[in-house]
C-alpha cells in the first residue's frame, strides 16, 4: 500500500499525513493487486456481512482492531420496475445510499476516514460541509471518542443535516461564505496541523466510498451495469466508485466496466461545462446556486479524478435544473417509495434527460445512485407538496373530502 500522485506519480509512505502531492495534485491509494487477487474470491467475500468492511483487503487498514463502524453500507439495490416502465427502460436499479446510518453515502467515507485517524492517533478531525459530511463525521467522531469541528456555509444548510451535526456533539461553525470558502478555510487549518482533514480531498475517505461500486456488482450477482448515474458536487464519489469498479476488474472479480455518468445542477456545473468542451480543466463557478444544496459546489476539489472517470469510462456529464430535480424527486417517491433529498434526485432527473436526448439506450442496464435520505431536507419536500387538508372532527365533512 502506498499513496501516489495521480499526475506526477510521486509515491508517499502510507503512514504519512499528507493531502496533496508536492506538485499540488491529488493523491490516490495503490495496493498490491496481485496479492489481493490471490487472497480473495467471490465465495470468500460472500461469507462476510455485506457492507463496507466485507471488502477489507481492498481497504487501507493495517490493524482491523482500529476500525470504527456504525454498520455502514450494505444499502439496498432496488429493482425499479414501475419507474423503468414509465420511462420505457428495460432494467433500472436504484442504489439507495440514504439507508446508511446517518442517511448518506458519506458514512462509507467516514468509517474509513475515522479508522485512519485512529491508526494515526489524531484526536481532532475537521471538515467543510454542505451538511451531510458534517452529519456523518460528527457521528463517527462520537463513536471513536474524537473531537469534531465542522465549517458550514451560512444559510441554506438543510435542517436535518444541521440537527445531526449539532446533536452528535460537533463544534459547528457557520461562516459568512459559501462551501468553497469553507473548504479553503479548513484546508488552511489542516496545513497548520490543527485538525486532521476528512473532506474528500483525503484519498482515504474515497477508499471507503469506492465500496458502492463493489456492492453494486455484488448485489447484481457479479454482473456489471452498463451505466452508473450519480449526482456530482465535489466529485469525490464518482471518482471513488470508478476506482472501485477498476479494482474489481483488476483483481478478476468482474470483466467489464460501466459508463460513469455525472449529473450536476444547472447553477453549479463546472464539470459538465468542461465535458461539453471536451477538456479536462474546469472553470470554477463563483456563485453556485441550486435547491440541491449537497451539490451546490462551484469548485470541485476532485475534478481531475472525475474528468478521468467520465472520459475513460466513455461516460457522460450533463446538468438538470431545479424544476427537473423536484419533479424527479417526487416521481421516485411516488412510483417506487424511495424518498431522497434533492441532490440525489439529480441522478433520476439526469436519467430522464439523457433518455430524452438519446444519449441513453433504453436497453441499457442502469444503476442510479441516490446519495442521501429525503428526511435530510424536509423543508425542500414540504415546499413542493400540497398542504394537508384541515377539517373539523365531522364524518360528513370527512366523507365529502375523500369523495372529492
Ligand atoms: C456529498 C453529496 C453529494 C456529492 O458528492 P461528491 O462526492 O461531493 O460529488 C451528492 N449528494 C449527496 C446527498 C451528498 O451528501
Ligand atoms: Zn505530484
How would you sum up this structure, described in words?
The chain has 16 helices and 13 strands. The chain has helices spanning about 35-40, 40-45, 80-85, 105-120, 130-145, 160-165, 180-190, 205-210, 210-220, 235-250, 270-275, 305-310, 320-335, 340-355, 380-385, 395-404; strands at about 1-5, 10, 25-30, 75-80, 90-95, 125-130, 145-155, 170-175, 195, 225-230, 260-265, 315-320, 365-370. The strands form three sheets. It has a six-stranded mixed β-sheet with strand order 4-5-13-10-11-12, with helices on both faces. The radius of gyration is 21 Å and the shape is globular. The relative contact order is 0.14. The structure holds pyridoxal-5'-phosphate and zinc ion. Zinc ion binds next to loops.
Amino acid at each position: 500500500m502506498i499513496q501516489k500522485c495521480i499526475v506526477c506519480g510521486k509515491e508517499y509512505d502510507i503512514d504519512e499525513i499528507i493531502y496533496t502531492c508536492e506538485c499540488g495534485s491529488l493523491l490516490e491509494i495503490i495496493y498490491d493487486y496481485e496479492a489481493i487477487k490471490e487472497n480473495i474470491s467471490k465465495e470468500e467475500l460472500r461469507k462476510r456481512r455485506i457492507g463496507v468492511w466485507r471488502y477489507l483487503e481492498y481497504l487501507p487498514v493495517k490493524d482491523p482492531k482500529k476500525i470504527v463502524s456504525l454498520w455502514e453500507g450494505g444499502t439496498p439495490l432496488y429493482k425499479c420496475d414501475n419507474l423503468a416502465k414509465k420511462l420505457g427502460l428495460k432494467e433500472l436499479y436504484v442504489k439507495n445510499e440514504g439507508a446508511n446510518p446517518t442517511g448518506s453515502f458519506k458514512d462509507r467515507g467516514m468509517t474509513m476516514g475515522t479508522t485512519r485517524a485512529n491508526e494515526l492517533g489524531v484526536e481532532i478531525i475537521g471538515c467543510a460541509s454542505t451538511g451531510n459530511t458534517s452529519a456523518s463525521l460528527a457521528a463517527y467522531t462520537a463513536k471513536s471518542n474524537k473531537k469534531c469541528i465542522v465549517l458550514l456555509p451560512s444559510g441554506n444548510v438543510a435542517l436535518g443535516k444541521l440537527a445531526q451535526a449539532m446533536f452528535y456533539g460537533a463544534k459547528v461553525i457557520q461562516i459568512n461564505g459559501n462551501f468553497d470558502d469553507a473548504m479553503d478555510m479548513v484546508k488552511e487549518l489542516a496545513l497548520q496541523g490543527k485538525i486532521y482533514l476528512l473532506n474528500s480531498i483525503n484519498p482515504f475517505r474515497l477508499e471507503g466510498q469506492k465500496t458502492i461500486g463493489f456492492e453494486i456488482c455484488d448485489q447484481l450477482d457479479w454482473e456489471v451495469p452498463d451505466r452508473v448515474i450519480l449526482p456530482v458536487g465535489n466529485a469525490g464519489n464518482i471518482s471513488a466508485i470508478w476506482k472501485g469498479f477498476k479494482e474489481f476488474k483488476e483483481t478478476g472479480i468482474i470483466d467489464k466496466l460501466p459508463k460513469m455518468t455525472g449529473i450536476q445542477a444547472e447553477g453549479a456545473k463546472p464539470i459538465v461545462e468542461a465535458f461539453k468542451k471536451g477538456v479536462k480543466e474546469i472553470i470554477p463557478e463563483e456563485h453556485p446556486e441550486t435547491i440541491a444544496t449537497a451539490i451546490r459546489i462551484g469548485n470541485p476539489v476532485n475534478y481531475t479524478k472525475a474528468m478521468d472517470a467520465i472520459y475513460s469510462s466513455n461516460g457522460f456529464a450533463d446538468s438538470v435544473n431545479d424544476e427537473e430535480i423536484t419533479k424527479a424527486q417526487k416521481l421516485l417517491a411516488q412510483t417506487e417509495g424511495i424518498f431522497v433529498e434533492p441532490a440525489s434526485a439529480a441522478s433520476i432527473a439526469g436519467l430522464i434527460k439523457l433518455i430524452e436526448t438519446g444519449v441513453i439506450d433504453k436497453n441499457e442496464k442502469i444503476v442510479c445512485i441516490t446519495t442521501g435520505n429525503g428526511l435530510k431536507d424536509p423543508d425542500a419536500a414540504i415546499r413542493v407538496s400540497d398542504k394537508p387538508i384541515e377539517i373539523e372532527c365531522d364524518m360528513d365533512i370527512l366523507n365529502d373530502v375523500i369523495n372529492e
